[in-house]
Design a protein that fits this description.
Largest sheet of chain A: 6 strands, mixed
Number of strands of chain A: 16
Largest interface: A-B, 103 and 103 residues
CATH superfamily of the largest domain in chain A: Zn peptidases
Strand order of the largest sheet of chain A: 1-2-6-3-7-15
Number of helices of chain A: 14
Protein name (chains A, B): Peptidase M20 dimerisation domain-containing protein
CATH class of the largest domain in chain A: Alpha Beta
Order of helices and strands of chain A: HHHEEEEEHEHEEEHHHHHEEHEEHEHEEH
Strand content of chain A: 15-25%
GO molecular function (chains A, B): metal ion binding; peptidase activity
Oligomer: homodimer
Number of domains of chain A: 2
CATH topology of the largest domain in chain A: Aminopeptidase
GO biological process, one term (chains A, B): proteolysis
InterPro entries (chains A, B): Cyt/Met_Dipeptidase, Peptidase_M20, Peptidase_M20_dimer
Pfam family, one (chains A, B): M20_dimer
Shape of chain A: globular
Chain lengths: 452, 452
């Protein structure tokens, strides 16, 4: 079996299929795209059937539908559940895109589109590896697919769906392509994911925008107060000040910190790639440790008052922010959520009204490297990239992975093929075509190894 | 002479004339309204000629044109220069207006429109008082008009215009209707105005929006940093922390503080009107003192990152804020501007790029109450409102008034007829028709007294 040859001889069809997914603006955060969610789920169903699934169907949840598919080779064989998501992030700011976000373009060895990597491109690697494994008769396991439509907004409805369909989703391991490697020449498998907590804050001062000359000085300004409250969350050493925030944070072993320290990392190149003069963060941890094994606090968005051209003096009525924490083992996102809400209410002055709404959250996740499926994945990377992959914890969050562990009792192996330069969640998202092809080779080899 | 009778018999024409000004969206902050500025200036010119000016013309400046007009009764008489502005504030947020901002409506004894008070309505009081004084042969002074189109954005071009036309603008006192009274039953003349300094801040982190999971913790978040820098400007006692900020602040005499203390003020009503539970501000000063004789720091607008619906995790590239200080005698707005810029640059971490752009500014102003023109104004209020007006310092800023004093060497008397409920700079700006009529009576009486 030569996977590369198969890819070469089906190159155009593969691209056309992937493009058909990328052209659907399945933005889960925006309700006006509800119809696109349905369309995208149906397209996935059709592609799964064409790839060799015995059955595939679009199934409702309380939120966007999920796509379920399966290929049962033999009931006595172990079962792999492939998880991916068909939803994508919003595309603003649109003016920074060099191409249309939902009109995929192949250029400079890359595929450019919203979702090119996250997660339509990576999910498609799984789909095509499955097709090849089926067509080439490699499968010594059963394969199920669960493709959901709300990963970017916290997978609403998916936990309940899992609980309702425990039998349908029964499996031995979950396979996910939704993470990044350290670099094209440094294959790696993500063995840890950070958790997430997310809130929206609304601060109300006076009941209308006021003249800042007439009222300024006596009436609290909601933007001033919001900035003060948010500035207090992180101290000058980069520590988060919420009481008990670090109580449950795992103390990572010296051995694991050494492994992270071995990851090739060039600070000058890292800074140059994002054009910053200096890095930032918590005192006592290396830059990579700060993104991998330590929790963070980021203001994802803020707005209020006059934001047009020129200078308008105004004491505004409202100010808003969207804020999030990345969490690490064993922080519980619901406990952290409550801590933050308590903190904000405790520091909010009486002169403004403050409302904190928790949005989606999720637990962190750790994958043991002695799992048979992990070993099979390692073999896949070795074949595709010519090197044994590093096992590294990374900073991103896929909250549903922790939910799978809790509800289905099954570990996930994160066979991700993204790169940091893919600009996921940003304008000009892209995916290296070399990575896409090597990804398919690695997953086919996973199937070849798994079940032996 | 009965001014009231004159107003009554010309009521409809007066309204139609004022409406013709209010219908022009002369928003100085927005470049797309440049043509409206010209139209509004031309309308003012025509109305001034119709009201009795010997000459009136639209004259260019480096920014919006000004309207100059004059009525020379006798070269040996003293000369009054009436100042007003034909530009208005932006109207956002539009959804909060109950009527169209540029389609004036009379309802509940009030006139509703952007500019109904500030400053088309108040400027119109001056225009009609002038017309009556001319028609009734009351003028024992010469009258000049300078109507500008950039007051809301710091009067660009007007200082240079004054310097170029010193002879044309020669006068003995300047009369301005662009301030508020304490209340309809508490006539007052503003004798002090705060100054203003205004800046826009741009904070740049990474060169693009980043995935907050992959980069968060190690790459500085520009919104976090902006909030921290701004939160540091005011301490927990409401004091501004910029070094030397208070060095030149006038220590107001116990006598003047006592006068401010005598202004009728009901804190519960004040809070209820704007729906806040508690007031805020600098320790050691009463609420009215905080708005009148103390400087402030307000964030007028802030924006950055994801501000759409739902929860998007992002480490944004940019964050912005528009911030301003109200200043008091004898703070110099250019010195204060430099202090703020120095402060921000001194606290900005190397992990972000920070750019602070000073926008418009202006000095504070104090009017002596023994000025003959002030005495004439007092008489005008007494006739119109039946009570001697209080002399009070107020919190607003009209930077050009201090410029007039510096460039023309002439004091201004602020015959203002607004009320705090007029919602200037806010949605649903309005002007009490009773106030408008009493204002005309007061200014006609000013002319009757002045020159005696």
């Amino acid at each position: 079996m030569d996977t590369k040859k198969y890819i070469d001889s089906h190159r155009e069809r593969f691209f056309n299929e992937l493009f058909s997914l990328l052209r659907i603006p399945s933005i889960s955060a925006l309700p006006e795209h509800r119809k696109d969610m349905q369309l995208c789920a149906e397209r996935w169903r059709d592609l799964l059937l064409e790839a060799g699934a015995d059955r595939a169907e679009v199934m409702p949840t309380s939120a966007s539908p999920v796509v379920f598919a399966e290929k049962i080779v033999d009931r006595s064989f172990p079962t792999v559940l492939v998880y991916a998501h068909y939803d994508v992030m919003p595309v603003e700011p649109l003016e920074l895109w060099h191409t249309e976000p939902f009109e995929p373009v192949v250029k400079d060895g890359k595929l450019w589109a919203r979702g090119a990597d996250d997660d339509k491109g990576q999910g498609f690697i799984q789909l095509k590896a499955f097709e090849i494994a089926v067509k080439e008769g490699l499968l010594r396991c059963n394969v199920k697919f669960l493709i959901e439509g709300g990963e970017e907004i916290g997978s609403p409805g998916v936990e309940a769906f899992c609980k309702e369909h425990l039998d349908l989703l029964k499996c031995d391991v979950i396979l996910v392509s939704d993470t990044s490697m350290v670099g094209l020449d440094t294959p790696s498998i993500t063995t840890g994911l950070r958790g997430l907590a997310y809130w929206e804050i609304e601060v109300t001062g006076p009941n209308r925008d006021l003249h800042s000359g007439i009222f300024g000085g006596t009436v609290a300004n909601p933007i001033n107060e919001l900035c003060k409250m948010l500035a207090g969350v992180v101290d000058e050493n980069g520590h988060i000040t919420l009481p008990h925030f670090y109580d449950k944070v795992e103390t990572v072993s010296a051995q694991e910190r050494a492994m992270l320290g071995a990851v090739p990392y060039d600070e000058e190149k890292y800074k140059a790639a994002i054009d910053v003069e200096a890095l930032s963060g918590e005192v006592g941890y290396s830059p990579l440790e700060r993104t991998a094994i330590r929790p963070t606090f980021d203001i994802c968005g803020i707005w209020g008052g006059y934001t047009g051209e020129g200078a308008k003096t105004v004491l505004p009525s409202k100010a808003y922010a969207k804020v999030s924490c990345r969490l690490v083992p064993h922080q519980n996102h619901e406990e952290i959520s409550k801590m933050f809400i308590d903190y904000i209410y405790s520091v909010a002055p009486r002169s403004v009204k403050v409302k904190v709404s928790p949005m989606h959250g999720g637990e962190s996740y750790v994958c043991p490297i002695d799992l048979p499926a992990y070993r099979a994945a390692e073999k896949g990377y070795e074949l595709a990239f010519g090197k044994r992959p590093l096992a590294v914890r990374r900073g991103g969050s896929i909250p549903i992975i922790a939910t799978f562990e809790k509800v289905l009792g099954v570990k996930s192996v994160l066979m991700g093929f993204g790169l940091e330069s893919d600009a996921t969640h940003s304008p000009n998202e892209n995916f290296l075509i070399e990575m896409y092809e090597k990804g398919i080779i690695a997953v086919v080899e996973f199937y070849n190894q798994f079940g032996h």
